[in-house]
């Protein structure tokens, strides 16, 4: 592919995206950041039929009219006759969008991508304004309606019921290991009614168990599971009887009035993918008291948002309970310096198992593992093994998944690197990521009262020191997302258009205030594209594309399509028709389990359980259903696969020792061969 900045590729013939009309010319949109940052190149991109023409045709504009409008606008814009897109105006708006870029970069999206999207949106908004009087009447009506529906500037007005309440907003802010969440949960436990809103299933489970163990009846509500603490006289679950509910943030009931709500990790409202759920909770929770726990970086933003609702914010600040020190020296690449209680952090599944093998070989210490694609239940089990001084697991090798949701007794955090591949480029970890992960070192009330943080390589020490010493950057914007009603009304104005294109059009036409940004539609659009050819009512389609579909996993995608077809036809689908698992009897044999395949299977089971809560006539749900049993079965097999990986390491070590002993007895000397860490192939993949 030609990577020369600003160079156009040869046009190729492609069919109309909606499957009708004559083929049109299209140019590749492979432009570098330099192109995105220049108004002229952004306008040139805008001219091509692969962009705006498809949007206009989706709104009923004849192809010839659409082409004429685009050419006229582009010509005038390039001549500097459109005030909104002259170089000075674009430059000013691009500078303003730098702040957005930095926010997105901290959450995994590059500044370049954020600015490019901003510039394109500026130009397209100018096009609508400039050509308003030139549109055919039918197109103008639909365009006006679409702009009304996609106006997201006033999210505080979306829930009038919450505006009728006098709510007290209390923030608990501080670093990791400061006790901020503990204080809020104590208030929740004493309340007559309440809810805990968790960022993770794992944390929701933890609070659910904690509340019930303390004698406070508490329900559990996650996307995949419902558990009720109280039953009626006939032994049936009574969802309303428990005084408290622990739920993932997306699953909170915004129609039930409660005394106290605790929203954990409130800084997540800036997350491009899920931030909308925290923002929606902040604006819409019908609670007398709302306790927000998180980082100090979000205090001013919360105050600004609450100013829209005429609500005051009370702020409680907490200091770290245990000390933390950044070491002056790294391990200089020597894994034999790793000790009991250490946690080595790396950023790929392959590196996790590679490091695990090398650490066990060079130190004799056994390693537990934790990473994102490992089921939360398995991560919790691995964390317990690491925390238990008598388990035999003395070291943890983990990804950045440890930054949130696991209680860990860590003596020292060791960064294998301070950079990670984000799906497109290798970039330095954000300030927030380094601080949050590093902050896991040391834990109040344990033998590791002083936490240590260092790196594997000395070259990363300066980066780590700067990050840990630097003040946090304040978060200035919160994510929002349209409601299902908005998307349904929007789709009505685009009859015949694939729903993935409806989402893309909404994303481009939406308008936001300075406090908010539209959350990334990447996951929803990708899911919608997979399901575009399956017949399904719009409302059901909206629900389905909100499901936890791992679009990068072909096995999961195949299962999701099968499930979508079942929803379309109304034909029930059993869990065993969606996923195939090895029987538990395999545990009694020496057969080797495929860990990666089991991880995919677990995603499918969790997707099935999520859908069972929304399409109960198609998918069987409940605590005693086959899918729930398959979940336990899959997690048991995953635990066995992790154990096999460890046992295989021990067997190889024993074999090497036996070979070494034989060699010593024959040759009278030791043949020591040291493998280079970077060059060894990962045999666990």
From TrEMBL:
<feature type="domain" description="Helicase C-terminal">
    <location>
        <begin position="330"/>
        <end position="491"/>
    </location>
</feature>
<keyword id="KW-0809">Transit peptide</keyword>
<dbReference type="Pfam" id="PF00271">
    <property type="entry name" value="Helicase_C"/>
</dbReference>
<dbReference type="InterPro" id="IPR027417">
    <property type="entry name" value="P-loop_NTPase"/>
</dbReference>
<dbReference type="InterPro" id="IPR044774">
    <property type="entry name" value="Suv3_DEXQc"/>
</dbReference>
<feature type="region of interest" description="Disordered">
    <location>
        <begin position="1"/>
        <end position="34"/>
    </location>
</feature>
<keyword id="KW-0067">ATP-binding</keyword>
<feature type="compositionally biased region" description="Basic residues">
    <location>
        <begin position="1"/>
        <end position="10"/>
    </location>
</feature>
<dbReference type="GO" id="GO:0016787">
    <property type="term" value="F:hydrolase activity"/>
</dbReference>
<dbReference type="Pfam" id="PF12513">
    <property type="entry name" value="SUV3_C"/>
</dbReference>
<dbReference type="InterPro" id="IPR041082">
    <property type="entry name" value="Suv3_C_1"/>
</dbReference>
<dbReference type="InterPro" id="IPR014001">
    <property type="entry name" value="Helicase_ATP-bd"/>
</dbReference>
<keyword id="KW-0347">Helicase</keyword>
<keyword id="KW-0496">Mitochondrion</keyword>
<dbReference type="GO" id="GO:0005524">
    <property type="term" value="F:ATP binding"/>
</dbReference>
<dbReference type="Pfam" id="PF18147">
    <property type="entry name" value="Suv3_C_1"/>
</dbReference>
<feature type="compositionally biased region" description="Basic and acidic residues">
    <location>
        <begin position="11"/>
        <end position="23"/>
    </location>
</feature>
<keyword id="KW-0378">Hydrolase</keyword>
<dbReference type="GO" id="GO:0005759">
    <property type="term" value="C:mitochondrial matrix"/>
</dbReference>
<dbReference type="GO" id="GO:0000965">
    <property type="term" value="P:mitochondrial RNA 3'-end processing"/>
</dbReference>
<dbReference type="GO" id="GO:0045025">
    <property type="term" value="C:mitochondrial degradosome"/>
</dbReference>
<protein>
    <recommendedName>
        <fullName>RNA helicase</fullName>
        <ecNumber>3.6.4.13</ecNumber>
    </recommendedName>
</protein>
<feature type="compositionally biased region" description="Basic and acidic residues">
    <location>
        <begin position="645"/>
        <end position="663"/>
    </location>
</feature>
<dbReference type="Pfam" id="PF22527">
    <property type="entry name" value="DEXQc_Suv3"/>
</dbReference>
<dbReference type="InterPro" id="IPR055206">
    <property type="entry name" value="DEXQc_SUV3"/>
</dbReference>
<dbReference type="InterPro" id="IPR022192">
    <property type="entry name" value="SUV3_C"/>
</dbReference>
<feature type="region of interest" description="Disordered">
    <location>
        <begin position="645"/>
        <end position="685"/>
    </location>
</feature>
<keyword id="KW-0547">Nucleotide-binding</keyword>
<dbReference type="GO" id="GO:0003724">
    <property type="term" value="F:RNA helicase activity"/>
</dbReference>
<dbReference type="InterPro" id="IPR050699">
    <property type="entry name" value="RNA-DNA_Helicase"/>
</dbReference>
<dbReference type="InterPro" id="IPR001650">
    <property type="entry name" value="Helicase_C-like"/>
</dbReference>
């Amino acid at each position: 592919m030609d990577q020369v900045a600003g160079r156009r590729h040869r046009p190729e013939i492609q069919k109309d995206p909606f499957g009708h009309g004559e083929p049109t010319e299209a140019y590749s949109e492979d432009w570098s950041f330099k192109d995105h940052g220049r108004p002229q190149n952004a306008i040139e991109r805008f001219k091509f039929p692969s962009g705006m023409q498809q949007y206009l045709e989706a709104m009923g504009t004849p192809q010839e009219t659409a082409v004429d409008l685009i050419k006229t606008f582009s010509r005038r814009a390039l001549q500097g006759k459109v005030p909104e897109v002259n170089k000075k105006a674009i430059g000013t708006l691009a500078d303003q969008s730098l702040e957005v870029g930095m926010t997105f970069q901290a959450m995994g999206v590059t500044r370049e991508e954020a600015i490019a999207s901003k510039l394109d949106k500026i130009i397209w908004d100018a096009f609508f304004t400039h050509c308003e009087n030139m549109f055919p009447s039918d197109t103008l009506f639909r365009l006006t309606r679409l702009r009304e529906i996609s106006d997201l500037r006033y999210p505080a007005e979306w829930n009038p019921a919450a505006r009728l309440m006098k709510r007290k907003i209390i923030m608990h802010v501080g670093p990791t290991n400061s006790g901020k969440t503990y204080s809020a949960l104590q208030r929740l436990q004493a309340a007559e009614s309440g809810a805990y809103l968790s960022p993770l299933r794992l944390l929701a489970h933890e609070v659910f168990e904690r509340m019930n163990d303390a004698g406070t009846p508490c329900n559990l509500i996650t996307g995949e599971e419902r558990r009720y603490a109280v039953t009626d006289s006939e032994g049936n679950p009574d969802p309303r009887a428990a005084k408290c509910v622990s739920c993932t943030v997306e699953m909170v009931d915004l129609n039930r009035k409660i005394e106290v709500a605790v929203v954990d990790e409130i800084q997540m409202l800036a997350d491009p993918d899920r931030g909308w759920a925290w923002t929606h909770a902040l604006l819409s929770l019908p609670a007398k008291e709302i306790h927000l726990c998180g980082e100090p970086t979000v205090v001013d933003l919360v105050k600004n948002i609450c100013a829209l609702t005429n609500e005051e914010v009370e702020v409680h600040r907490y200091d770290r309970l245990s000390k933390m020190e950044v070491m002056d020296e790294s391990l200089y690449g020597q894994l034999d310096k790793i000790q009991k209680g250490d946690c080595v952090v790396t950023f790929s599944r392959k590196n996790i198992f590679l490091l695990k093998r090398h650490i066990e070989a060079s130190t004799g210490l056994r390693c537990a593992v934790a990473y994102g694609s490992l089921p939360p239940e398995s991560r919790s089990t691995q964390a317990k093994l690491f925390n238990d001084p008598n388990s035999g697991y003395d070291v943890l090798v983990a990804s950045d998944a440890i930054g949130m949701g696991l209680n860990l007794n860590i003596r020292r955090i060791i960064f294998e690197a301070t950079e990670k591949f984000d799906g497109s480029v290798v970039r330095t970890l954000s300030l927030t990521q380094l601080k949050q992960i590093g902050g896991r070192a040391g834990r109040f009330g344990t033998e590791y009262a002083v936490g240590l943080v260092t790196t594997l390589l000395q070259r990363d020490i300066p980066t780590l020191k700067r990050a840990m010493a630097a003040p946090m950057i304040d978060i200035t914007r919160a994510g929002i997302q349209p409601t299902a009603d908005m998307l349904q009304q929007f789709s009505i104005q685009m009859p015949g258009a694939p729903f993935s294109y409806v989402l893309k059009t909404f994303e481009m036409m939406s308008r936001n205030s300075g406090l908010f940004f539209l959350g990334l539609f990447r996951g929803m659009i990708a899911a919608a594209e997979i399901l575009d050819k399956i017949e399904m009512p719009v409302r059901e389609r909206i629900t389905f594309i909100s499901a936890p579909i791992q679009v990068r996993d072909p096995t999961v995608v195949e299962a999701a399509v099968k499930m979508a077809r079942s929803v379309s036809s109304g034909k029930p689908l059993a869990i065993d028709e969606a996923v195939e698992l090895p029987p538990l009897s395999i545990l009694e044999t020496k057969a080797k389990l495929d860990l990666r395949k089991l991880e995919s299977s677990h995603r499918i089971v969790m997707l099935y359980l999520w859908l069972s809560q929304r399409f109960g006539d198609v998918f069987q749900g409940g605590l005693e259903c086959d899918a729930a049993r398959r979940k336990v079965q899959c997690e048991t097999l995953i635990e066995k696969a992790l154990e096999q990986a460890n046992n295989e390491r021990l067997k190889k070590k024993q074999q090497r020792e036996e070979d070494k002993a034989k060699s010593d007895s024959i040759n009278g000397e030791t043949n020591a061969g040291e493998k280079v860490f970077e060059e060894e192939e990962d045999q666990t993949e």
